[in-house]
């Protein structure tokens, strides 16, 4: 066997090709454009539509250069040399310390955000699962653009499981949990659910008339305690607000 033949039977690391299965690249024909359904959902600015469109869509996860840790190495003549840069998935950090994974619908959107970032294509659920594993509590689609949409933690968790997220005010199981939380409170005549900020939930309580400030405060404390006991609400509601109206 000649040297050229030997080289052709193995890869650059010397590992033989024989017995290895090469899988096709799922994004080989990707032109960098946004998935049509995702583009429509982003244009509408609806979080629930975006979450649903991400289930079948391809997104681009940005990988950026970061400086390695530790002091700069010393080169010839005792001078420090530039530290080598490693590549890492970019994350966004809110003022309160919460982390979010930025993803992009198209190569143009990624380039507008950071022209030096390397795009890594991934299915929406796979990107969401990676975000959850990395401790992120939100997914931001096309950050920095006029059509940026933030998926809250419950939507991120649902997407990571390949499921469509339902806004909490339209989720029948959330409604059942809220009903169980206020069950037995005589001062609460009724309850209704409304949309909250950022995909959260607003619980509107219809309270019987005649309660003074102390009695109303006690009712609200009892409702909050009841809501806190509902594990399903902790899983499916990222932010919850209470509103009181007369019965």
What does this structure look like?
The structure is a single chain. The protein has 247 residues and is of the alpha+beta class. It folds into 2 domains: 36-66 and 85-160, Uncharacterised protein PF11572, DUF3234 (Trna Endonuclease, Chain: A, domain 1, 3-Layer(aba) Sandwich); 168-246, 2-Layer Sandwich (Alpha-Beta Plaits). Helices cover 33% and strands 23% of the residues. The chain has helices at 3-8, 36-44, 47-54, 107-113, 124-133, 153-160, 172-182, 213-228, 231-236; strands spanning 58-67, 85-89, 92-93, 99-103, 118-123, 138-141, 149-151, 188-195, 201-207, 240-246. Strands 3-4-6-7 form a 4-stranded mixed β-sheet. A 3-stranded antiparallel β-sheet has the order 2-1-5. β8 and β9 (201-207) form a beta hairpin. The longest helix is centred in the last third of the chain and has 16 residues, at 213-228. The model is unreliable at 1-6 and 72-83 (pLDDT under 50).
Task: Give a quick summary of the entry.
The chain is an alpha+beta fold and 247 residues long. It is built from nine helices and ten strands.
């Amino acid at each position: 066997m000649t040297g050229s033949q030997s080289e052709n039977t193995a890869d650059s690391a010397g590992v033989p090709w024989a017995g290895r299965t090469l899988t096709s690249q799922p994004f080989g024909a990707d032109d960098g454009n946004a998935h049509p359904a995702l583009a429509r959902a982003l244009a509408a600015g609806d979080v629930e539509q975006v979450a649903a469109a991400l289930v079948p869509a391809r997104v681009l996860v940005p990988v950026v250069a970061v400086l390695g840790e530790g002091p700069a190495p010393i080169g010839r003549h005792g001078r420090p040399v530039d530290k080598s840069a490693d590549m890492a998935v970019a994350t966004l950090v809110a003022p309160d310390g919460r982390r979010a994974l930025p993803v992009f619908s198209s190569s143009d959107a990624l380039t507008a955000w950071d022209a030096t970032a390397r795009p890594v294509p991934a299915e929406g659920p796979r990107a969401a699962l990676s975000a959850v594993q990395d401790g992120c509590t939100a997914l931001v689609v096309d950050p920095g653009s006029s059509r940026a949409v933030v998926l809250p933690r419950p939507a991120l968790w649902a997407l990571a499981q390949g499921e469509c997220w339902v806004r909490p005010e339209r989720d029948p199981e959330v409604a059942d949990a809220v009903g169980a939380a206020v069950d037995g409170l005589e001062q609460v005549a009724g309850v209704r659910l409304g949309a909250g900020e950022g995909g959260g939930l607003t619980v509107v309580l219809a309270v019987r008339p005649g309660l003074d400030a102390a009695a109303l405060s006690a009712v609200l404390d009892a409702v909050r305690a009841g809501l806190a006991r509902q594990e399903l609400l902790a899983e499916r509601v990222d932010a919850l607000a209470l509103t009181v109206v007369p019965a």
